[in-house]
């Protein structure tokens, strides 16, 4: 028997061309779009593979039978995972019906939804709900919204080919009931928050499918249709003009899917709204910005983030596909090619088709300043990249606003990526997502007691208390100021300032990425503090790697392990060693994935504390991670100068080591009128002077004299190479 090609099979089995009732025909994806996908699937290998995977998954679901259990479990539990699997199967099966015409897929969607039609009217608030807004199918209403977003797409695909009685039952007992539940729950539906985004998207898409303009308007403008909240208002308030999402990259990733799929539904049903042009194309900006806030495919794990979330997620498969369909940006094809997966949708088909046609180009990763806040006036996320290469060094300066309830108290925090690895790290969230044994995947108590506290980040702590005393309302009232940013050229920098995190204290941070020819760039960090009073200052550096050498004379705690403090995150730090910086100088070198890193400190009077997270953690909820803390006691105005130097290689396979010793011989700071000048002395006798002006006005001329040498430059930062005197 001659094997039929995939295209021939799909075309031969495509859903019959019968007269369609306009009131029930698919509206989220048109019949013409389904036919185009079926006709072209064989020429788009990535799409054909997704189609085959969906068929395998749904066929297994059909063989297993209908399973719609009464909800009882928290995240990760059997009933939670079953309902989660069901919404995916409904969506996939609906698409398969349209692409293959095989009635078994429509029947499966019908039977699943009829089972939900029996179950859903019997449900009250979920029995495992705790501090979250309870759902009916899931422990939090957010998951009910996610169920709706997916299930309504599968239902839309088959609805026209169900009987009138079946449609009526499913419409009224599943989708209208679920929409009514979500719109009546103001704590979910009428907020400016990612939970609301999912709820608005689900209700709005259901409104299109059920031909209910009231539901659509509620989704767009809030339950009372006033426009004070709702999807459009979220587009106004949750994104900055640069497409940066208020809660940070991790939640930008999560919220992106409802934003893009609902926008696509709006475009398909009401093109006159020009949703992709709304607010200067904010939806499309958000897709590109989400990608920019990643390294090696993984999102910068700031705020309540999980460090293992990457561009290889359903949200980004959808985002890349819809973004490409709207823009035809070949850089998005480059991301999709790296993802090696596409959405099972018309937009995903277009991506796969054009990748097969050789149209993909590398995505334009670049140094980027992403303003924060609806008007772009609430600080910024500053990203400095040493080049477009995959493993180029990246410095991230987190000079952003609080980020709502998922924000951390870490103004002027920073991260470093180098050699394909996270080097200066951020803990992210204390949470095990969907792990039933860890509180059902909820945020753990240590998220508040450790992960959100300032000492868990790489920024200034005053008197062992967190910024804003870890009070959300106070933190949301004031944001940092991004004073300066230069992302191109051999000297790239970000300067931010924070006033109001502590009473009477203003601190400023300059992060300077210094190119070193063939070697990786150095990163100079100058943290200055102005304080009319006296205080104890701590400047932590959380890092990934194993310490191999230090020139600080340390007193190590080898038989006991004292805890650094009693509250504000300090209770979770074990003190492994302490030592005074001799003459205000000190260096610690560690190794991480075959590269050495030397952290050099030039902070007169400072003590070095070597610590590790995990103290006071009886349930083992925290990861054990190292941290170096520079401490100044009884200080008023102060300056912390640090330099991070990547160097050398270790090859475990060949057992060879090169460049394991630091190439920096010294680091000093000179304060002059109008500027501070860092002198980096290299082992060969050369020097690099980095002058950082107090006045950060772009283009302003500066002139200072250091050790008899006159330095003239314009702009906030100047570089001067020479030899040691």
TrEMBL record:
Residues 1-19 form the signal peptide. It comes from the Bacteria. Residues 371-632 form the Heparinase II/III-like C-terminal domain. GO terms for molecular function: lyase activity. Residues 68-280 form the Alginate lyase domain. Transmembrane segments: none annotated. It is found in: Periplasm. Its main location: periplasm. Keywords: Lyase, Periplasm, Signal. One of its GO terms (cellular component) is periplasmic space. SUPFAM superfamilies: Chondroitin AC/alginate lyase. InterPro entries: Alginate_lyase_dom, Chondroitin_lyas, Hepar_II_III_C. PANTHER family: HEPARIN-SULFATE LYASE. This is Alginate lyase family protein. It comes from Sphingomonas suaedae.
């Amino acid at each position: 028997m001659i094997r039929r090609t995939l295209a021939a099979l799909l075309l031969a089995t495509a859903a019959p061309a019968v007269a369609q009732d306009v009131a029930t025909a698919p509206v989220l994806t048109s019949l013409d779009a389904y036919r185009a996908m079926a006709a072209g699937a064989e020429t788009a290998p990535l799409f054909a593979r997704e189609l085959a995977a969906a068929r395998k998954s749904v066929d297994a679901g059909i063989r297993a039978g209908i399973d719609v259990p009464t909800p009882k479990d928290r995240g990760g539990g059997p009933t939670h995972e079953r309902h989660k699997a069901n919404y995916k199967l409904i969506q996939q099966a609906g698409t398969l019906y349209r692409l293959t015409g095989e009635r078994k897929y429509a029947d499966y969607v019908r039977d699943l939804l009829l089972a939900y039609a029996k179950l859903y009217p019997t449900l009250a608030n979920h029995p495992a709900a705790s501090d979250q807004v309870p759902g009916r199918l899931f422990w939090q209403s957010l998951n009910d919204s996610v169920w709706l977003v997916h299930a309504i797409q599968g239902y839309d695909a088959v609805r026209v080919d169900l009987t009138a009685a079946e449609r009526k039952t499913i419409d009224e007992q599943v989708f209208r009931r679920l929409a009514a539940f979500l719109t009546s729950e103001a704590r979910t539906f009428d907020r400016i928050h990612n939970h609301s985004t999912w709820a608005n998207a689900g209700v709005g898409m259901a409104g299109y499918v059920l031909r209910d303009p009231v539901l659509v308007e509620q989704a767009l403008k809030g339950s009372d249709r006033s426009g004070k909240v709702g999807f459009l208002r979220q587009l106004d308030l949750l994104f900055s003009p640069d497409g940066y999402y208020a809660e940070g990259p991790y939640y930008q990733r999560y919220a992106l899917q409802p934003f893009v799929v609902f926008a696509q539904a709006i475009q398909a049903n009401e093109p006159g709204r020009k949703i992709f042009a709304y607010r200067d194309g904010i939806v499309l900006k958000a897709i590109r910005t989400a990608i920019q806030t990643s390294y090696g495919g993984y999102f910068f794990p700031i705020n309540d983030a999980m460090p293992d979330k990457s561009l290889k997620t359903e949200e980004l498969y959808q985002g890349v596909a819809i973004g490409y369909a709207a823009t035809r940006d070949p850089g998005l094809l480059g991301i999709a090619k790296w993802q090696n997966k596409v959405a099972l949708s018309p937009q995903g088909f277009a991506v796969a088709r054009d990748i097969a046609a050789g149209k993909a180009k590398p995505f334009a990763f670049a140094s980027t300043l992403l303003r924060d806040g609806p008007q772009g006036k609430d600080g910024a996320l500053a990203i400095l990249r040493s080049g477009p290469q995959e493993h180029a060094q990246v410095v991230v300066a987190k000079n952003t606003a609080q980020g709502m309830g998922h924000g951390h108290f870490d103004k002027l925090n920073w991260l470093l990526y180098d050699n394909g690895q996270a080097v200066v790290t951020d803990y992210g969230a204390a949470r095990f997502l969907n792990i039933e044994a860890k509180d059902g995947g909820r945020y753990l108590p240590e998220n508040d007691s450790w992960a959100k506290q300032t000492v868990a980040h790489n920024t200034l702590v005053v008197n062992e208390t967190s910024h804003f005393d870890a009070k959300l309302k106070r933190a949301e009232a004031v944001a940092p100021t991004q004073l300066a940013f230069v992302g191109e050229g051999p000297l790239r920098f970000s300067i931010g300032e924070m006033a109001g995190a502590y009473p009477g204290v203003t601190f400023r941070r300059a992060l300077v990425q210094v190119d070193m020819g063939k070697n990786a760039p150095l990163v100079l960090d100058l943290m200055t503090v102005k304080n009319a009073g006296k205080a104890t200052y701590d400047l932590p550096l959380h890092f990934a790697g194993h310490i191999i050498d230090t020139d600080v004379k340390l007193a190590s705690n080898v038989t006991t392990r004292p805890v650094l403090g009693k509250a504000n995150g300090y209770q979770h730090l074990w003190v492994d060693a302490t030592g005074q910086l001799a003459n205000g100088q000190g260096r610690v070198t560690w190794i991480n994935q075959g590269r050495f890193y030397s952290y050099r400190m030039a902070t007169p009077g400072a003590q070095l504390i070597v610590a590790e997270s995990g103290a006071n953690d009886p349930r083992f909820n925290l990861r054990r991670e190292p941290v170096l803390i520079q401490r100044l006691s009884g200080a008023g105005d102060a300056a912390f100068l640090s330099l991070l130097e990547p160097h050398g290689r270790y090859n475990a396979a060949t057992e060879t080591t090169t460049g394991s010793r630091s190439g920096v011989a010294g680091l000093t700071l000179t304060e002059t009128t109008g500027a501070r000048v860092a002198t980096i002395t290299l082992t060969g006798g050369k020097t690099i002077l980095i002058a950082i002006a107090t006045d950060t006005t772009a283009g302003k001329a500066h002139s200072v004299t250091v050790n008899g040498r006159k330095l003239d430059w314009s702009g906030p930062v100047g570089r001067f190479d020479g030899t040691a005197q």
